[in-house]
Structures are given as structure tokens and as C-alpha cells.
Write a structure and sequence with these properties.
Helix content is 73%, strand content 0%. The chain is mainly α. The longest helix has 20 residues, at 58-77. The termini are close together. It comes from Roseburia hominis (strain DSM 16839 / JCM 17582 / NCIMB 14029 / A2-183). Keywords: Membrane, Transmembrane, Transmembrane helix. Pfam families: DUF4234.
């Protein structure tokens, strides 16, 4: 079971804590998407943060795309129409709007919860 999070609170906390809460949010998003999609061998949230730091953000771009793919796969399996979210998250992440991508991911997770 995954926790439904208030997107506005997550955004405000991320901004107020200068991104520290955003790191926690990434960990939660990753673990929740793995849970919803049934991907037991998926990369854990902590590993995503570590790999993103080690690769100077490059892994974070790849991660955003893969999260979109996993969410689309999950929605298709449940009979919910889906679009190509991975590309949207990828573009947002590349242009520095990662927090918007996180909010959209959280919105999709809240719907699937």
C-alpha cells in the first residue's frame, strides 16, 4: 500500500527546505512506483539519490523517464488509458523543472493508490 501525499505540501516543503525534502520525496516516489508497478527488483529510492549525485544529475534525467514508463505500464495493466509520460518527465527534468515532474508523478500515484 502506498501513501497518498498532498502535492502542494510536498512542493512547499521542498522549497522551504532548499530541496532537502525534495530528496526524500524522490526516495518515496521511487519506492511507491516500484510498489505500484510490482517491480520488486527496481532500483530503490536511496540508490536513485546516490546515483544521481555520483553522475552529477545525469541519472536523475534517466530516472524521470523510467518512472514515466513504469507508471504508463501500470496504468495500461489496470485498463486506464495512458500517454507517454516518460517523455514529458524527461523534458521537464532536462529543462530544470524537475519539481513539476515530481508533482505530476505524485498525482498519478495518488490516482493509483
Amino acid at each position: 500500500m502506498i501513501e497518498r501525499r498532498n502535492i502542494a505540501v510536498c512542493i512547499v516543503l521542498t522549497l522551504v527546505t532548499c530541496g532537502i525534502y525534495g530528496i526524500y520525496w524522490i526516495v518515496c516516489l521511487t519506492n511507491d512506483v516500484n510498489t505500484v508497478s510490482g517491480d520488486v527488483n527496481g532500483t530503490s529510492g536511496g540508490m536513485v539519490v546516490l546515483l544521481t549525485i555520483v553522475t552529477c544529475g545525469i541519472y536523475g534525467i534517466y530516472w524521470a523517464y523510467k518512472q514515466g514508463e513504469k507508471l504508463d505500464f501500470t496504468k495500461n495493466n489496470r485498463g486506464i488509458p495512458s500517454s507517454n509520460s516518460g517523455v514529458l518527465y524527461l523534458i521537464l527534468q532536462i529543462f530544470g523543472f524537475g519539481i513539476i515532474a515530481y508533482a505530476l508523478m505524485q498525482n498519478e500515484l495518488n490516482k493509483l493508490a
